[in-house]
């Protein structure tokens, strides 16, 4: 069990997480750590004492988003209509991406993750696989769609958010609706290329 932090150490940690959350949301994940420390009002040494690497800070900042994604997936699986569950899950993830450029970047590329987030991401993928399988079993999701195909929904949405957030912040909803229409049965057109394999998807998302 982790030893509780002293009050001053906990305060510094909270300040760093709050500063990082704000800066990541506004500008993405590449904000210099020195700037985060300065915004939090602490030294860069204090930042490294609390968070040895960027991945550890990202873990702390986005722990609530990772947990919220899991809740979304579980709620989707509980919905009576499998297609509605798939739509609710994808819409919820896209809403979180649109609201936070840091999370948008985290959701659309590989890492950096610390060990705790790696485990949470793996659990999230397992839930997503069940959402996809359930929709296909209901006959509402085209049968040739794979979990790896869902990567393109997230990637495409991420780029739409980046390009239009400042000029049309709700345009992503139109983009998502078009993508969902292409995923739904009946009578989809044959896809011209095979899906990515899990290994290909992993390589494509690696930095």
Backbone shape: elongated
Counting DSSP H or I runs of 4 or more residues, the number of helices is: 10
Per DSSP, what share of the residues sits in E-state strands of 2 or more residues?
Answer: under 5%
Overall structural class, as computed from helix and strand content, comes to mainly alpha
**H-E string:** HHHHHHHHHH
Uncertain regions spanning at least 5 consecutive residues = none
Mean pLDDT, as a whole number? 86
CATH class annotation of the largest domain: Mainly Alpha
- Separation of the first and last Cα atoms: 33 Å
Question: Share of helix among residues?
Answer: over 70%
Instruction: State the major sheet.
Output: none
CA gyration radius, whole angstroms: 19 Å
Per CATH, the architecture of the largest domain is: Orthogonal Bundle
Count of discrete domains? 2
DSSP strand tally: 0
Can you tell me the CATH topology of the largest domain?
Tetracycline Repressor, domain 2
GO molecular function: DNA-binding transcription factor activity; transcription cis-regulatory region binding
Protein name: TetR family transcriptional regulator
Organism: Planobispora rosea
Keywords: DNA-binding, Transcription, Transcription regulation
SSE arrangement:
Blueprint: H1 7-27, H2 33-40, H3 44-50, H4 54-78, H5 82-99, H6 101-108, H7 115-137, H8 150-164, H9 171-183, H10 198-205
Helix pairs in contact: 1-2, 1-4, 4-5, 4-7, 5-6, 5-7, 5-8, 5-9, 6-8, 8-9
């Amino acid at each position: 069990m982790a030893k509780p932090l002293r009050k001053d150490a906990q305060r510094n940690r909270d300040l760093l997480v709050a500063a990082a959350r704000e800066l990541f949301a506004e500008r993405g994940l590449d904000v210099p750590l020195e700037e985060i420390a300065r915004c939090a009002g602490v030294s860069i040494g204090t930042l490294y004492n609390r968070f040895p690497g960027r991945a550890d800070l990202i873990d702390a900042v986005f722990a609530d988003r990772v947990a919220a994604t899991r809740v979304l997936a579980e709620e989707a699986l509980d919905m009576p209509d499998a297609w509605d569950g798939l739509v609710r899950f994808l819409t919820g993830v896209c809403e979180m991406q649109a609201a936070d450029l840091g999370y948008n970047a985290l959701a659309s590329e590989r890492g950096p993750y610390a060990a705790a987030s790696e485990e949470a991401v793996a659990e999230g993928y397992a839930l997503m696989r069940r959402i996809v399988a359930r929709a296909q079993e209901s006959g509402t999701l085209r049968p040739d769609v794979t979990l790896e195909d869902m990567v393109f929904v997230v990637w495409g949405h991420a780029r739409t958010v980046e390009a239009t957030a400042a000029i049309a912040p709700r345009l992503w909803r139109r983009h998502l609706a078009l993508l969902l229409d292409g995923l739904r049965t009946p009578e989809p057109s044959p896809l011209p290329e095979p899906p990515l394999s899990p290994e290909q998807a992993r390589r494509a998302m690696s930095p």
